[in-house]
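User: I'm new to structure prediction. If I give you an amino acid sequence, what do you actually give back? Let's try with this one:
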Amino acid sequence: MRNLKRFVGFAAIVAIVGGLAVDAAAQTLTKENWTEKAGFKPAPIPGFKPGLILDGTNYQPFKDHLPPAIHLLMDKYKMKVWTAPYQPIHPSLSYIDATNKYRGGIKLIDTGSETRKRGIEGYVAGLPFPDPKTGLEVAYNYHYSYQGDDGGFHYGVYWVSAKSGVERNEEWRWLYINRAQNRTDVDPRPHIPEFEEKGIAYASMTWAVEPYDKAGFGALYYRYNEPKDQEGWIYIPTMRRTMKATFGTRGDAWNSTDMLYEDVRGYMGYPEWMNWKLIGKKTILAPMHSGVRSGKQYRDQTFDFKTPPHWNFRSKWEPRPVYVVEATPKFRDYPYSKMVFYFDAETFLIPVKEAYDKKGKLWKIVINAYNDSPDMTKAPMTIGTSVTIDLQAEHATVFPSYNFTANTGLEPGKFTLTNLKKMAK
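Assistant: Good question. You get back a string of structure tokens that encode the predicted 3D arrangement of the chain. For your 425 residues, that looks like this:
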């Protein structure tokens, strides 16, 4: 009898341990199950056939699968949407490994109306909240979304009026360590020690290449783990001096464009700065494999600068699973009364954003068009183009991509004022 009891007890332990192992295996994310485990699959769109070209005359059967802002652009500004079949996306294998390794122990902290108190603890690397249940969890997934650990971007900037066309243009370069901490792809991982000591989460350096009278003008930025305003310095080559940039005034535009600092990549602020509400999960058409080619030589193939409103561009839009999330600012002086984000459910990037003014009227639209990763197992999606449209001013800023790199192993010592001056020469 005693032996029987021992056997039964041992069998129960084996069953429990075995059950835990099966449950752990079921929860493990892989590149094959990333879509279902991290987010969700897109639903079929009735009547949709890849290859359709949608415009103001024929998009109505699919209007529930297009953001309202896109309806407006089609109706009023003759925007066209070239459609393509859905293609699944997963992050690098090392990002997936980090998600599995560190997913336990992550905790959200109720920050209430506070904007300077950090709202997450226990996060190390990877996707913090697979299969998110709240708008705040989606926001943190975006904040720590897979975009590579570092990279470079060579791009154009075009100021465009709906009435008169292109007003002027510039050419810029941008280098950044996107993950000074919480790294997954490039050693040292998970943190760069010298940045970790200072609490720096992100380092960025950007400078103008053209026109001649602007060349060399540049800026150096640091962002921190704590949800405080970034630090920055600008270099003015005509004066041969650097100046400390002042941040904290909401609504500052980058380089006198239609894009606010917080609009970069869709949202460059912190999750702690907003109240987040999950409106729902939908399937919409979005440009995640846009087919927009990088390079100056392809600019005119992408943008129709000659035809009003002069900012329309050609790209492919495919069925994408998205979390529709509304964000309302905790700051009283924030320029937008609310923003509606369409977070892609596989990447948690933002292909479309709608921003509303203080009276609740649609003010700006941000469209980010992405392209295929050169190798999904070790590199992020590439940037096709970005467009910020001010509907009330009937003005836009477009950013054609000339070249994009990622995970190149940028050294932290590169991001200094001395090097900013060197880059400007």
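You can read the tokens as a compact description of the fold. Here is one thing that stands out. The mean pLDDT is 93.
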